[in-house]
Amino acid sequence: MATAETATIAETARGLAPRVGYLLFGAAACLAGAAVAQAPTTRLTLTVAGVTLAVLVVIIKGSQMYHQRRLAREEFRLFRLVGEDAAPAFTTDRLGEIHLRNKAATDRFQGSDATTLVATLGEHFASPGAVMFRLQARAELRGSAREDVVTRRGHMRLSCTAMSTGRFLWRLEEFQDRTGVGRGAETLSLPMMVANKAGVVLFSNEAMRKLLGARPKRLDRVFVAPVVRNGEEVEVSAASGAVRAILSEIEGAGERREIYLFPVPAGRADDSVLAEFEHLPVALMKVSHDGTLTSANRAARDLAGIAPGAPAMFHDLFDGLGRPVGEWLADVVDGRLPTASEVLQTRSAADRRYLQVALRRMVIHGQPGALAVLADATALKELEAQFIQSQKMQAIGQLAGGVAHDFNNLLTAITGHCDLLLLRRNRTDTDYADLMQIQQNANRAGALVSQLLAYSRKQTMKPERIDLHDVLSELTHLLNRLVGERTALKLVQDPLLGPIRADKRQLEQVMVNLVVNARDAMAAGGTIRIETEAVTLAEELRRDRAVVPQGEYAVIRVVDTGMGIPADKLQKIFEPFYTTKRSGEGTGLGLSTVYGIVKQSGGYIFVDSEPGEGSTFSLYFPVHEIRPEDVAPPEPARKPLMKQGEGVVLLVEDEAPVRAFASRALRMRGYTVLEADCAEDALRMLEDPTLQVDIFVTDVVMPGMDGPSWVREALKDRPDARVIFISGYAEDCLSEGQARIPNSVFLPKPFSLTDLTTTVQGQLH
């Protein structure tokens, strides 16, 4: 064969062939003009031009004759090779027009008068034009290309080879179907057809054509449903109308689909199979595509609360999915979710429980449906709810602690500046009463903030060893005045009750809050019992969301005969601001404060209540036995370091209003005050060795370096300096750092002018 350059020259010659007539006409015109021209120069020019054009015509004609002879010789040699080939072969030009075909092609496509290869193959496989275009483009780049395509008789390997003359050699190798499809399928009484993955019907037997009344072309014209699946009952668009049949599909060679149609069986399931299904220990349900519960065994009926033989719909049995249960079932039946599992709640009024429902698509009597496997998930769901509740309580506690810190800074500035104004007023001044109102309301706000800190377990506590007999006996006098005349208060104590470790003031607040709540729950009067009991737990106690370790406990119970608490509200009573009282009767912080104090003291609190039968609050505190190492030796009396009002105070506070009040208060008492708004500024001030500082008054939480960190750094050069930490958080926010800092005390916010100056004087004197 010629080279690619030869093919390019031949192509150029064929492109110039239509213009030969124009060139010949031009040559004749030039020569005729030269014959009649008078001027020698004109005659010479026209003669040369005419001869040149004539020579060009001769060259083009010669090239055409050479190309045709070369093409004829090449095709002759080619067909000496493929003329007797058993596989059909064609030669075409770039447009697909057939020029030659061998004997096998003539015999195979006998009766076809098509002049193009696309038209010749159009009846044998889908989209021959697209296939030939791909092969021809690849053959021009690589020299040859081939592709296997599915036909009605099997599949065909179509190969294309680019010839140097711009022609293409096509060779067709057909592979007959040996799976029974084809002529053998014509004798089947079952309707069957073969389709490709695009849904084009490649073959249909006589039974299928008789059923449909014509030769089918596409699957979407055969079946009513857009999607059909193996083993399911389908609806066929037959010549006599819609016909129901069971579809069976076999995957054939070359991505073909062999589809058979079977008649719909009229029989029912065997009774023995139903009996086995009924007594399976696994809870099973069968659900149709429309949500109808076709069958459920005994275990499933017991779990879902279904009466035997009662008709039911799947979406009427469960809820709690967050979207319609019917849509979830449809996703599984339609194949969008092959399997699905969700925790749903039963709708049975007698026993609402949580079930883990796992769905799997299945075919029931030719109809798509789902098999549901049920498992009791009530305990798991309750554990999840308890975990979410504990997480919520923790988050609310963190929020309460942060809000309390910011409010304590504001209240410190308000009460402090109010104290400064009161120093310059006496009771006869007209604005003295207004200032007292500001101070009293600020103190009330401070009490609310203290309750928030108690709930978040970030309040400052001073635990000590407490004898509950003495504390409760002393507190009874106050509680009797709180409950009023219509309510009786009884105290029953266990003589074997052991001591506990707690903050006495906070424990008294717990008892006051519980007794006041019990009084409010008995509008018509009643009896409140405070009982104590020594309890020894041989093994851990698991209740609600808590696990009480084994050991000895002092238990306090507050029992009332009031209206009780509904079950749906028991989990909310310890949340801040949750109250069932009318507006103005309570803040909703009483029980949340109790919860925080008990937890911060290392105890546990539980509630038992029934509507109309009263409530019982049980408090478990671990018994605290004193050890010899816990007894601290008495601290020797310190000698005063200096006179009252003398000394230099370094005040470090990032809140400007608090810093301004504290600075003025200390200066009024005669102290020299140095101010800094951050730890870094304080350390820079202390770099001066001539600066004398007697006491550091510093906030704990500040931007940048915190209070304990900069104090430890400063004490390296000034070990004798005293320290006062102030903070709107609890003291335990610095307990570890403060433990390593000598001569330090803690002053919680909000503090008054007297609190601040007294603490400073106590440190210096």
Counted beta strands: 30
- The SS-based structural class is alpha+beta
Characterize the main sheet.
Answer: 6 strands, antiparallel
Q: List the total number of helices.
A: 21
**N- and C-termini, Cα separation:** 117 Å
Beta fraction of the residues?
Answer: 15-25%
Major beta sheet, strand line-up: 12-11-16-15-14-13
State the helicity in percent bands: 25-40%
Low-confidence stretches: 1-13, 268-273
Q: C-alpha Rg, in Å?
A: 50 Å
| pLDDT averaged residue by residue | 78
Question: Based on CA inertia axes, which overall geometry fits?
Answer: elongated
Short description:
With 765 residues, this protein is of the alpha+beta class. It is 38% helix and 24% strand.
Keyphrases for this structure?
765 residues; five-stranded antiparallel β-sheet; alpha+beta; disordered N terminus; six-stranded antiparallel β-sheet; 24% strand
